[in-house]
Amino acid sequence: MKKIEIITRTENLETVKQVLAKNDYSGMTVTTVMGCGNQKSDSSEFSELNVEINLLPRIHVMTVVWDEDLDDIVYELQQELSSGSVGDGKIFVSTVDEGIRIRTGERGDKIL
Length: 112
What we know:
Blueprint: E1 2-8, H1 13-22, E2 29-35, E3 56-65, H2 67-81, E4 89-95
Antiparallel strand pairs: 1-3, 1-4, 2-3
C-alpha cells in the first residue's frame, strides 16, 4: 500500500475527490493548512502591522491506495491539478507497512 499526500489550493478539493473516485477510492482525510513555497502571498491586509505574512491557505489530502494504482492516480492528479503556475502544490508518496481497521482489528489488504 502507498500513502499519497496532496497539498494544493483549496479550490482543488473537488478535483482530487473526482480523481480518487474515478479510480474506486473514496477514503481520504482532508485538513485545511497554511503553507509557503515559491509563491508569494498578498500580505496587503497586514501591511499596517508591519509584519510579513508569507503563508497561504491550502488543503492537505491524505489517502492510501494499492501499489498497482499509484502511478495512474499520481499521473491523473498531476494532470488535473496543474495550472502551470507557481503554487499548484506538491504530491508526496510513501510506503504503508501495515494498516489496521480499529473497529474490527482487520489488517492489511482487507482494510481498503
